[in-house]
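Q: Got a minute? One more chain.
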Amino acid sequence: MICRTTLLTTMVTTILINRSRIAVLLLAIAVFLTCLPISAISAGTRKIVVVKSADLKPYQDVVLGLRDGCGCDVREVKLNVEEDKKNILGSHPDAIVAIGTAAFKKVITITDIPVIYTMVMPSETTPPLNTNISGVSIDISPETYISTMNSLFTKAKRIGLIYDPRNTKEFVGNAIKAASASRIELVTKQVNDPSQVPAALNEMQQKIDILWLIPDPTVVTNEIVDYMFRFSFQNDIPIFTFSKKYIEMGAIASLDIEPYDMGEQAASIVNRVLARKSAGSNVYARKSHLTVNQKMATKLGFTIRTGSTTEVDTIE
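A: Always. Here it is, folded:
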């Protein structure tokens, strides 16, 4: 009888101990989940469809930044001539990320799902946009451009800028304010057609120290860019531009976007939009990379000061 009682007591004690351990384990799990941010719990269940205009390396870098920054279930969809929307919406995504102008044009009419864009020409993202659309501009902020030029060319106080107000009116308006705050004169000329650019350049000939080339589709055509560089060489006026590819043509410096970081910015917008189910924001690319053409600077008689500038490539 004593043995039976002892055995029963042992069994009951074991069950209670195991229950206690289970209870402690469940409590620990609950505390752990409570301490996690909401985005960390739910991000894995979010479905994001990525639509790219092309399989270019900068676009691929954007996707990498998006995946790393969002932690979402990211699916890439190829654009087809037919059934584009069916392919994009087939997986019932929580949000769509469009990379490149062609991709953005395919999804701009979608209104019931958040659409986030990157690598899109500014002329396509001019307000007003639908309330479900937000994204990262292909432009770096005018303030960053102005401050960079001001630090590189300490004696250059007159910057020339040609633009089409249909494409880049808002950007140029912000650039004028940034230049004024830095005590720099921004000499602007408006054009509505590429054929008007040569005349605008001739009017600037004795009035500017630097020519600033921005990604305005009316101005950035092959023929007009060639003309701008001939103007630069003939008048010893350096060109500051938005893309490193123009360094090879003779630009004195370029300030480029960082695609991977743009992907991380897009991820932040995705997380904010899905967390509060509201419109996101339209922001400038926050990170840039400076390339300096020292050979061209010497040829044009310009001294470039890069000591206070980080992430600089210098081409001799």
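A: The domain at 46-138+259-285 is CATH 3.40.50.2300 (Rossmann fold).
Q: Perfect, thanks.
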